[in-house]
């Protein structure tokens, strides 16, 4: 059977919402030249932060503060990228877990935008305790290990911390520059099971056509599958209604499904779409990052195909390389993993739009605010994985507190 493919071009990124010329293919250069996408929309004159650190690690705390504010090496500090100063309003040391709790209860009244927590090791009890308690108070946190502040190449650690922190406080570093003038809603739908494998959590992330994160919506965890399926419909309905209040009625809805959905999940999603968006065309798109397919380029000595290669398997299914060779080089080892994209036949958007949908999946892999060299996967898939990981890390009781308060729903606090 003959197969046909194409190579999707690298998209331009959009910076500074107020200027149509603020575009660049490279995120660092774009930020330095134009500032973040929401430069004129951010609404904060400064970002207030607090540093919490072990009493034995004063030097590493100083490294973190100086590095973020003044910069190090080629990184010229937080303000050079985001045009908004990062101000440390307090630095507090701790000696034990009890002190961490007291500190968090005290600083919560100051309403910092973000709290940096220096850890002697990532899997410490302080990590879970501090993160969950801060999030329950509606405060994003950024954990930093002592090792990352002492190893070579520290400037890259610092600039990645700056990028993730800006997104966590609600900033939008960049989006995809698109000529599409349509109001298209992209829904990421997934689920997670807590560490006891007892509670099931469903969640939805919403994005605009250019990849701008709108908000995350989640319901209280349930035990029974029937309750989850029923709740999924109302979760999607509520999310679409709220999106319409903020952004207007979308011209189309693209649903990215991370976990392999069951028949009843699909029916639940269809029920929601037909209830609140019955006149809006939609596509149900399965994103499988664990495909058994592999792609090779026999014309190149490495056999690794170029990044952006998309091979059509049918009118509604294809294989995409978000990773791959750039020019003649690929820095990673091993064959790149293939992303299997399949548009469900129950979609009301015509299969003639499938290539456009696949290209958007590829473009969304350029929106990863966890780090400048973070893994190239679509933001919908990435956020689903990070949220699922967070459910396990912080526990069901803490998850209930965080989602019930609603203070963080429009911020990428889970990065």
Give, in spatial order, the strands making up the sheet with the most strands: 1-14-15-16-13-12-9-10-11
| CATH architecture term of the largest domain | 2-Layer Sandwich
Share of residues in helices: 25-40%
Radius of gyration: 22 Å
Order of helices and strands: EEEHEHHEHEHEHEEEEHEHEEEEHHH
The major sheet is characterized as: 9 strands, mixed
Shape: globular
CATH class of the largest domain: Alpha Beta
Instruction: State the CATH topology of the largest domain.
Output: Nucleotidyltransferase, domain 5
Any low-confidence stretches, pLDDT <50, length ≥5?
none
How much of the residues is beta strand, in percent?
15-25%
Query: What is the number of beta strands?
Result: 16
Euclidean distance between termini CA atoms: 42 Å
Assembly level: single chain
Query: Structural class of the helix and strand makeup?
Result: alpha/beta
Short summary:
It contains eleven helices and 16 strands. With 415 residues, the chain is of the alpha/beta class. It folds into two domains: 43-170, Response regulator (Rossmann fold); 176-404, Ribonuclease H-like superfamily/Ribonuclease H (Nucleotidyltransferase, domain 5, 2-Layer Sandwich).
């Amino acid at each position: 059977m003959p197969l046909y493919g194409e190579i999707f071009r690298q998209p331009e990124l959009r910076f500074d919402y107020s200027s149509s010329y603020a575009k660049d293919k490279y995120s660092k250069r774009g930020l330095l030249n134009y500032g973040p996408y929401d430069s004129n929309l951010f609404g904060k004159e400064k970002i207030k932060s607090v540093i919490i650190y072990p009493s034995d690690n004063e030097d590493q705390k100083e490294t973190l503060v100086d590095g973020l504010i003044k910069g190090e090496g080629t990184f010229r500090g937080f303000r050079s990228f985001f045009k908004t100063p990062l101000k440390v309003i307090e630095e507090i040391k701790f000696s034990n877990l009890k002190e961490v709790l007291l500190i968090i209860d005290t600083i919560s009244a100051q309403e910092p935008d973000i709290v940096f927590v220096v850890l002697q090791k990532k899997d410490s009890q302080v990590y879970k305790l501090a993160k969950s308690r801060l999030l329950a108070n509606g405060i994003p946190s950024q954990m930093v290990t002592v090792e990352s502040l002492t190893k070579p190449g520290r400037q890259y650690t610092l600039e990645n911390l700056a990028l993730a922190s800006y997104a966590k406080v609600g900033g939008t570093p960049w989006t995809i520059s698109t000529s599409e003038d349509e109001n298209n809603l992209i829904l990421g739908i997934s689920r997670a099971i807590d560490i006891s494998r007892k509670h099931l959590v469903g969640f939805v992330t919403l994005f605009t056509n250019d990849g701008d994160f709108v908000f995350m919506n989640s319901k209280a965890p349930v035990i029974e599958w029937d309750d989850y399926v029923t709740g999924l419909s109302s979760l999607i309905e509520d999310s679409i209604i709220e999106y319409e209040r903020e952004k207007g009625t979308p011209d189309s809805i693209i649903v990215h499904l991370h976990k392999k959905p069951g028949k009843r999940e699909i029916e639940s999603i269809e029920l929601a779409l037909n209830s609140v968006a019955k006149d809006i065309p939609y596509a149900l798109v399965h994103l499988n990052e664990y495909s058994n397919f592999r792609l090779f380029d026999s014309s190149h000595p490495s056999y690794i195909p170029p990044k952006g290669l998309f091979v059509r398997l049918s009118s509604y299914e294809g294989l995409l390389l978000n990773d791959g060779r750039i020019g003649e080089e690929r820095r990673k080892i091993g064959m790149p993993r293939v992303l299997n994209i399949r548009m469900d036949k129950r979609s009301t958007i015509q299969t003639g739009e499938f290539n456009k949908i696949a290209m958007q999946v590829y473009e969304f892999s350029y929106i990863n605010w966890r780090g400048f060299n973070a893994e190239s996967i679509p933001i919908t898939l990435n956020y689903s994985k990070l949220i699922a990981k967070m459910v396990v890390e912080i526990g069901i009781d803490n998850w209930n507190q965080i989602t019930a308060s609603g203070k963080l729903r429009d911020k990428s606090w889970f990065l």
